[in-house]
Specification:
Elements: E1 7-11, H1 20-29, E2 33-36, H2 42-45, E3 56-58, H3 66-80, E4 84-89, H4 95-105, H5 112-119, H6 121-130, E5 138-141, H7 143-146, E6 156-160, E7 170-172, H8 175-196, E8 203-207, E9 214-222, E10 225-236, E11 244-249, H9 256-270, E12 275-284, E13 287-294, H10 302-310, H11 314-321, E14 337-344, E15 349-354, E16 363-368, E17 375-376, E18 388-395, H12 403-414, E19 415-418
Parallel strand pairs: 1-2, 1-4, 2-3
Antiparallel strand pairs: 5-8, 6-7, 6-8, 9-10, 9-12, 10-11, 11-14, 12-13, 14-18, 15-17, 15-19, 16-18
Helix pairs in contact: 1-11, 3-4, 5-6
Length: about 425
């Protein structure tokens, strides 16, 4: 396929739940879009629905390795004669490759030091703490983790330091649980080490923030500052895992102002001066603790929820920022709807049948991730253990029901599962 003008290179937009970034970017910048395909098994790549929305795709192994990604772009240039006019990242892991391509193309991008601060959770926490923001105290790092001397009744959080999607995150209370968490994380990281271009050795222990109240803030960042666009109420699976199992936009707590202030300060402290950022915050006794900040739009369809709740297209704002087109005056919008997503967890075992349920009228959409013959895990651990999602919408002011119970009931109706003897 020949593209008759310079194009926008989108990285990470072909991932499930992020495909709308392709359409929003093309519309915002009025240019053809080319996807630098998110790494994965090649034949599975070719079945991605996002590919049908773009003007072209670049598919090769290990495309998040900056060297490999740049060579793929140069090869594409030799074939078509065109360089990318903009490089737009919509995922954490794509930032190093995006920066390398942007330097070659002479396109605007985040500074290298900002990317490093936002990709390494430990460096991020140190930066935020130095700026006066509260973060979970770091207990042990890298080699110190496996030989940590446990104290009685101590609860800590184990985390891979450069991963995401709640992968490998687990609350641990003793040496045995820590060993199990490290082994599980190493297995997961080994699977993604080359694909995502990460350092699997980086890990840490941090204090457990004893609170069930977590939110995220979607922040619009420009060289002039950071402005919160929406606050998302997050629903998490119970300890020891903290997988995201639902989101509601907008969050309407009385502490919204202090949450927004912490998120905006965090983005400024990290130096994020371009595009949309995603700040995760846990409230402990009314005090905001910054869990982490991603220098990219939110995943889990939160960007879509914000659009349906407020009418603000975060993907468009994000894309324009990567051609240095910024809104000079941006005010936080009011909500006209309540939008939500809940992730389905089938009973554990082998999926033997999938049924069509009767859906409540507030359902905006539904997606099934797994098919007959695939396994459902016992717990909602991370992004890999979801079986699907349901999207919802209400008029602002309407009562939102117990989404988690309704979703669990629907999952039981949709997925027929046969138990597996371990």
């Amino acid at each position: 396929m020949r593209i008759d003008q310079d194009y926008v290179l989108l990285i990470g937009a072909d991932l499930p739940t992020r495909e709308r970034a392709i359409l929003c970017t093309a519309r915002a910048l009025n240019k053809p879009t080319v996807l630098l395909a998110y790494p994965g098994e090649y034949t599975a790549q070719l079945r991605r629905p996002g590919f049908a929305l773009a003007d072209d795709i670049i598919v090769k192994p290990y495309l998040l390795n900056p060297r490999v990604a740049l060579e793929a772009i140069k090869e594409y240039e030799r074939k078509t004669g065109f360089k990318p006019a903009a490089i737009v990242p919509v995922n954490d892991f794509v930032l190093p490759a995006g920066a390398t391509i942007a330097a070659y193309a002479g396109a605007p991008f985040l500074a290298d030091e900002v990317i490093v601060r936002c990709r390494d959770k430990l460096l991020m926490k140190n930066t935020l703490s130095a700026a006066g923001l509260r973060v979970a105290r770091t207990i042990a790092v890298d080699e110190e983790v496996s030989c940590y001397e446990w104290k009685n009744e101590e609860r800590l959080i184990f985390k891979p330091s450069t991963f995401g999607g709640s992968g490998g995150v687990k609350m641990v209370k003793n040496v045995e649980e820590l060993k199990s968490a490290i082994a599980d994380a190493q297995s997961l990281l080994k699977k993604y080490e080359d694909i995502l271009y990460i350092d699997p050795r980086r890990m840490h222990l941090e204090e457990y923030l004893a609170s069930e109240q977590e939110v995220s803030v979607e922040v619009y960042c420009t060289p002039l500052g950071a402005t919160a666009v929406a606050v998302t109420e997050k629903m998490l699976s119970p300890p020891p895992y903290f997988a995201e199992i639902g989101h509601v936009v907008p969050y309407k707590g009385a502490d919204c102002r202090v949450i927004v202030d912490a998120a905006e300060r965090a983005c400024r402290a990290l130096g994020i001066d371009r595009g949309v950022a995603h700040a995760e915050i846990r409230m402990v006794d009314g005090v905001p603790y910054v869990v982490e900040v991603g220098a990219r739009p939110a995943g889990g369809k939160i960007v879509d929820l914000v659009f349906r709740a407020t009418g603000v297209d975060l993907y468009a704002l994000h894309a324009k920022a990567y051609v240095s087109e910024f809104e000079k005056e941006f005010a936080r919008p009011s909500s006209v709807h309540v939008a939500a997503i809940s992730f389905m967890k089938a009973p554990p075992g082998l999926i033997t049948a999938i049924s069509t349920p009767t859906l409540p009228e507030q359902v905006h959409g539904i997606a099934i991730y797994k098919g007959i013959g695939e396994k459902s895990a016992p717990y909602a651990r991370d992004f890999e253990t979801r079986e699907g999602h349901i999207e919802w919408q209400w008029q602002d002011g309407e009562n939102v029901p117990d989404l988690l119970k309704i979703t669990d009931d629907l999952a039981q109706e949709i997925f027929q599962v046969q138990g597996i003897d371990e």
